Amino acid sequence: MGSASDIEQVRPCAEALEELGIAYELTVASAHRTPERAAELARTARERGIGVIVAAAGWAAHLPGVLAAYTTLPVIGLPIGSSPLGGTDALYAIVQMPPGVPVACVGIDTGRNAGLLAAQILAVADRELAGRLEGLKKQMADKVLAAAEKL
Fold this sequence. Notes:
By secondary structure, the protein is mainly α. Helix content is about 50%, strand content about 10%. The chain has helices spanning about 5-20, 35-45, 65-70, 90-95, 110-125, 125-150; strands spanning about 55-60, 75-80, 105. A three-stranded parallel sheet has the order 1-2-3, sandwiched between helices. α2 (about 35-45) packs across α3 (about 65-70). The chain is globular. About 35% of the residues are buried.
């Protein structure tokens, strides 16, 4: 997270990862206030066993791009809607990366989707995780069908 105040929007990401049995690290590093820390976290992520980075940031939201500059791991940007612009500034900052520094992006304040996208990326090389994701998708479908039957 770019700031500890982002925790409420990041919590659904952590919950999705926990639900799927995926270990994760949660920390604060600012692209603007602690750029050296952010760079070091990205540089050493693979050594620490990280497979995907989810970077949540609001306002100018440079954190996902800074992390992507220092790693070859996939980076998912989670724009936080904390600014006077409601997160559109963060969204644009994340999706408009320069050539050669790709960052995936989920919707504003959609932490659960960030966690699920990270899980899907990891599941490319993990059949057991892919099976757990398939089960989760089946549960979602079953809920919709149950709701449809009640109508």
